[in-house]
Amino acid sequence: MKVIIKTLFWGSIFFFFFITNQLFAQKKWSLQECINNAFENSYEIKQRMLEKESKNIQLQTTKTGIAPSLGTNVSQSFDFGWSQQADNLMINSSQTTTSFGVGLNMDLFKGLRTYHQITSNKLDLEAILFDIESAKESIELAVTAYYMQILVNKEMLEALKIQVQLSKEQAHRIEILVKNGKSSDSELYAAKSTLANDQLSVVEAQNTVRLSILDLAQLMNYPDVNNFDIENEIDSNFEAILNDNIDIDVIKNIALCSRPAMKAALSKIELAKRHIRITQSGWYPSLSLSASYGTGNFYRFNDIIVELPNGEKVILPNEPFGSQLKNNSRFSVGISLYVPIFDKLSTHFAVKQQKINVKFQELQLEETKRSLIKSIEQAFTNAVASKEKYFASQVAYTSSLVAFQYEEIKYNAGSSSNYEFNEAKNRYLRAQSNLIQAKFDYLFRVLILEYYGR
C-alpha cells in the first residue's frame, strides 16, 4: 500500500511539472507583448530613466536653493603658559575658552535667477521624458520589423513544405512507373534529386526561422530563447488592413503635434530662451540677508589677584558657566546689497551667445519638422507601392497556381515531361514567395504609418 501511495505521489509531481513545462513552452508572444518586454529590458531605456532621476534631483536641488542656509559652530581652545603683568610680575595665565555660534544666510533677490533656473530644470526634465518616448518608438519599430520577418520566414517555410510534399508524390509516382516499365531510371533519379533539394530548402528555411526568432529574443533581452515563439495575430486582420484608406494629411497633422521628437525640439527652444533669462540676471543687483548668534565661556586655571588703589588685594574668581553663556551672548543681523557696475561685458556676450543658441534650436525644430514630413511621405509612398505590388503578386500567384494545376494534370496523364512539371512548380513557388513578401511588406508599411499617426 505504501509503495502505491509513493508511486501515485511522485507520479503526480512528475505530471505537474511536465504539464507546467508544456504550458510554458507553448506560450506564444503577441506583437504588443514583445514590445512591452523589450521596453522593460532595454538598457537604453534604463539609462534614460537614470538620466530622468538625475534631472529630477537637479530640479529638487534648485528648488531647495531658495531656502536659507543655517549652520552652527562650536570651538574649544586651550592656552598654557606664563605671562608678564604690568608690574613685571610673571604669573601662570593658563586658560580655556569655549564659544558657540549659529549663523543664517539667505538670498533675497538675485535677478530672478533661481526662478528661471527652476523653470529651466523643468524643461530639461521634460526633454528627457521626450527622449525616453523617442527611444521607445525606435525599439517598437525594431521589434515590429523583427516580428514581421519571423512571420515571413514561417510562411516561406510552410510553402517549402508543400513543395516537398509535391516532390514526394512526384517521386513516388515515377517509381511506380519505373516498376511498370513506363518510365526510365533517369527520370526517377531526377525526381529524387529534386526532392532532396526541396528538403534541403526546408532545412535552410527552418534554420532561418530559428535565427529570426533568436534575433527578436536578443533584441528583447529575453533569456529563454528555446521556449520563445510568436503568434500570427496580424495576418488574421490583413483583409481589413488592405481595405483601409490612408489619409496622409491627417497623419502629418497628428505627427507634427504628437511626435516626441517635435515636442523635444519645442522644449529645447523654450529651454534656450530660459537660459537667456538666467544669463540676464547677471545685470541685476543682488540682495542677501545674514544673521548670527553667538556666546562663549572663559575659564582660568589660576586665580588672578588684583590690587585695588587703596592697596587692598582682591582675588577675581571664574564666573559660573551658565552666567557667562548668558552675559556673553551676542546677536547680529545684516543685509548686503551688491550692484554690478562693470563685469568686463561678460554678461553681455553671454546673453548674445544664448540668443544664438535659441536661433540654432529654432532651425533644429524646422529640420525635425522637415525630416518628419519626409519620413511620412516616404512611408506613404512605400505603402502605396507595396499595396500595388501585393495586388500584382496576387494575380501572378493565381495564374501560376492555375498553370501548375494544369501542368500537374498533363503530367499525370503522361502528356508532359518531368522537366516541364518542375518548371511549373518552381514558377508557382516563386509566385507564392513574392506574394508572401509583398503581403508582409505592406503590413509593415501600414504599421509605420499608424505609428506616425497615433
Walkthrough of the structure:
The protein is of the alpha+beta class and 454 residues long. It has a domain at 110-156 and 209-285 and 346-454: Outer membrane efflux proteins (OEP) (Up-down Bundle), CATH 1.20.1600. Helix content is 68%, strand content 14%. It has eleven helices and eight strands. A four-stranded antiparallel sheet has the order 1-4-5-8, with helices on one face. A two-stranded antiparallel sheet has the order 2-3. Helix 8 packs antiparallel against helix 10. It is elongated and about 160 Å long.
Q: Would you kindly provide a brief summary of this structure?
A:
68% of the residues lie in helices and 14% in strands. With 454 residues, the chain is an alpha+beta fold.
Layout of helices and strands:
Blueprint: H1 2-25, H2 31-41, H3 43-64, E1 69-79, E2 82-84, E3 90-92, E4 95-109, H4 113-179, H5 185-219, H6 238-243, H7 248-258, H8 260-280, E5 286-300, E6 304-307, E7 313-316, H9 321-327, E8 330-338, H10 346-413, H11 418-452
Helix content: 55-70%
**Low-confidence segments:** 14-25
Shape: elongated
Instruction: Write down the CATH class of the domain at 110-156 and 209-285 and 346-454.
Output: Mainly Alpha
- Put simply, the count of helices is 11
What CATH architecture of the domain at 110-156 and 209-285 and 346-454 would you give? Up-down Bundle
CATH topology descriptor of the domain at 110-156 and 209-285 and 346-454: Outer membrane efflux proteins (OEP)
